[in-house]
Structures are given as C-alpha cells and as structure tokens.
Amino acid sequence: MSVNPMAYETQFFGFTPQTCMLRVYLAFQDYLFEVMVVVENVILKKLNALPNCKISPVQIRRSTEKFLLFLKEHFDKLFSKMEEVLLQLVLDIPSNVLLPEDKVHEEYSYSKEEFQALQEEIRELQQQCRAEASAGQALQAELEEQKVVQAELEKILQWFDELENISREHGTSNFRESFAFLTDNSRKLQTVLKDVEVKSKRMKKHHPLL
C-alpha cells in the first residue's frame, strides 16, 4: 500500500485514498475466498457422483488451498498495479488545483514573515482589548462610587431643606441665622449639661448615699 499521506485528497474526499484502496482489496479478497469455497463444494459433489472415485475430500482441500494461494499471489500483483494507477490518476488532486474552500488562500496569500507579523498584530489587539475592558470596569466602579456619593449629597441637601422649612415654620426666614441660632443653642445646652455633671459629682461627694 502507498505510504504517501495524501492529506489534500483526504480533505476533498473525506477519507484517505489508501483506506479506500484497502477496503477494495479486502472486498476482492473476501470475494475470492467465497468463490473458492463454492468451487470446492461443486468439485466435491461432482466427485461423489462418480463411481469408484479415489480422490478424498482432504486431497481436494489441499488442491483448493494451493490454487487459492496461486490466485492470491497473482491478484496481489495485479492489485498493486491497479492501486498505483488509481492513486495517481483517479484519487489524486493535481498540485495546481485548489479546492473551493481554499480559494481564499490564493487571493490572500502571505509569506511566513507576513503571517508572523499578523499574529503579532493580533496579540497586540488582544492586549488592547483586555486593557480597554479593564479600564471599562474601573470606570464602571467609579461611576458606582459617584452614584453612592451623589445619593449621600442628596440626603444632605434634603436635610438642609428640612431644616430651612423648620426655620420658616418657627418664624426664621434666614437659614444662616437659623443655623447660627441652632448652633448657639447647642453650645448653651452643652454648657448646661457640663454644669449638671459637675453639680452631680459634688453632690455624690457630700452625700455618698445618692
């Protein structure tokens, strides 16, 4: 059998030409064996019909096997020539023929150096895509943080609006004055609390049972 890989033919046919020839060879060989069995049975029937036949079935089997070996040797020689013709003239794709799916290679042919340059460009583009994706994720995270900060600012503005509404309800139209008023009252309350704490400590010293 041929050892040529014939990869392009395999791409076109969907099977290796050598595999095809092997199956044909095995089919012919099986058919030859079946024919010899039929011939042997016919000979045995003819001999059994003859009176005083001295040829035994064992002798017929030996003769059949010799004849089969003779046929097989000649068949192998003929098949070898047939295989060579079929592989060269029938199952072979000429070197100047391109399959339809490979026409693109003819239109866009590249040298080894150009192909390597394209691969390098692809790698660079992949790196740029990964960097842009990472930057996009960082921007998305920053936007989420800005949303949180904006929500807090809106809460603070709402709080100031509520303070201003409260100030108006109590007759203070100027928010700054109201805020100063609240701050001053808060300081006064803190002073009162401190005085209460001091007096409480003094009372505990003079009256331990309290």
UniProtKB/TrEMBL annotation:
Domain of life, per the record?
Eukaryota
Q: To which protein family does this belong? A: Belongs to the mis12 family.
Q: Which UniProt keywords apply?
A: Cell cycle, Cell division, Centromere, Chromosome, Coiled coil, Kinetochore, Mitosis
Coiled-coil ranges from the UniProt annotation? 108-135
Pfam families, sorted: Mis12
Report one GO cellular component. MIS12/MIND type complex
Organism per entry: Ceyx cyanopectus (Indigo-banded kingfisher)
InterPro entries (UniProt xref):
Centromere_Mis12
> Where in or outside the cell is it found?
Chromosome, Centromere, Kinetochore
State what protein this is by name: Protein MIS12 homolog
The taxonomy runs: Eukaryota, Metazoa, Chordata, Craniata, Vertebrata
Gene name tied to this protein: Mis12
**Major subcellular site:** nucleus
Query: GO terms for biological process?
Result: cell division; kinetochore assembly; mitotic sister chromatid segregation
